[in-house]
């Protein structure tokens, strides 16, 4: 179910509304799979613990992190790497969404340490890059 639901999720912008809808869907599916019905009330955290599942937000953030590392290891003139550095000129039209994929990545980078400028140097070392992804997801679980 997750592979179909999260297809291409590493390229999604991440808003609170999108994350909430995905979290509700995951919880609903887990409750059906585990056959937990209305009279048997358990918390969502207990449900995820019993199922051995991570939150959808953590899974998407990890996928986004892996994709960012892949892009940072690409040659400088490759299209994804150029698109990562590209900043359009001018202002956004009125009513356009302020949250973008790049702003989502910047927010992820702030929680994990590196900046967008230092990320390519860190991503060159795959083990260090992967350790940043793992340490961040375990840190989020402890905060919950």
UniProtKB/TrEMBL annotation:
Q: Which PANTHER family match?
A: REVERSE TRANSCRIPTASE DOMAIN-CONTAINING PROTEIN
Official protein name in the record: Endonuclease-reverse transcriptase
Where on the tree of life does the source sit, at the highest rank? Eukaryota
Annotated region described as Disordered, given as residue ranges: 88-110
Basic and acidic residues bias (residue ranges): 96-110
The root-end lineage is: Eukaryota, Metazoa, Spiralia, Lophotrochozoa, Mollusca
């Amino acid at each position: 179910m997750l592979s179909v639901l999260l297809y291409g999720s590493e390229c999604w912008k991440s808003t609170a509304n999108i994350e909430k809808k995905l979290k509700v869907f995951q919880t609903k599916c887990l409750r059906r799979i585990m056959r937990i019905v209305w009279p048997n009330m358990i918390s969502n955290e207990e449900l995820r613990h019993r199922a051995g599942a991570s939150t959808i937000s953590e899974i998407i953030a990890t996928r986004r992190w892996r994709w960012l590392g892949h892009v940072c290891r690409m040659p400088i003139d490759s299209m994804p790497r150029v698109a990562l550095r590209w900043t359009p000129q001018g202002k956004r039209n009125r009513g356009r969404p302020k949250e973008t994929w790049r702003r989502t990545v910047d927010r992820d980078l702030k929680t994990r340490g590196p900046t967008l400028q230092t990320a390519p140097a860190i991503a060159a070392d795959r083990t260090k890059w992967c350790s940043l992804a793992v340490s961040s997801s375990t840190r989020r679980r402890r905060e919950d």
